[in-house]
Amino acid sequence: MFEVSTVGDRGLRIQFGETISPDTNQQVRIFCMLLEKERITGVVEWLPTYTAISIFYDPYVISYDILKQRVLGMKDKIYHTDLPAAEVIHIPVCYGGEMGPDLLTVAEQNGLDERDVISIHSNKDYLIYMIGFTPGFPYLGGMSDEIATPRLSEPRPAITPGSVGIADQQTGIYSMETPGGWQLIGRTPLKLYDPTSASPILLQAGNYIRFFPVSMEEYKTIEQNVQNGSFTPHTETLQEK
């Protein structure tokens, strides 16, 4: 699929598919890379999602019709462009207790004990489909249905940054303090969003996350090292499966 439509009076949307899948997401990411290379005059920004890209432009510099033709002319390049190798970022998580107050709920909802939930959650590489909702918040794919759990019936007014949660078939990490209704199972001491950093967003779409459990003592040590700038998460190149 490659369908082009309008978005308001200064936007263009490219639809690559209707369902969430790694293949569709790969096309989205490749096209974003092509947009970065092309640098079309008049294009202000583009926003990738699970299955589409919205491109916003200055109509006083480039018209919709001309931009559409430029976009259509780039279509075939998708199939002749390779993405760089994906990386796996290892994310430490302290599960349960005050860090994960809903871990028991997730376990009971699925007929498991808390150790089972931790094992299932941390025994997976999660594709980062996109970053959104708040700066640095990763939309992840690949969570096991064995630990899928509905959202809270009443959202919490404030979630601590770094909280790891589950909502239905998804898992994610809160990048900043916001209200939220996800079931909280743990917390990472890493900063997913740091506006004072030269690279304020820790994660990138197209890479993978691998969670690993740490104790409260290990959590506090990593947290201190993060604060003084001496901690760098372990990263490795994804091995083709």
From TrEMBL:
Q: Which UniProt keywords apply?
A: ATP-binding, Hydrolase, Nucleotide-binding
- Start and end residues of each Carboxyltransferase domain: 2-203
Give the top-rank taxon of the lineage listed in the UniProt record for this protein: Bacteria
**A Pfam entry, by short name:** CT_C_D
NCBIfam families documented for this protein: 5-oxoprolinase subunit PxpB
Q: PANTHER family per the record?
A: 5-OXOPROLINASE SUBUNIT B
Q: What's this protein's name?
A: Inhibitor of KinA
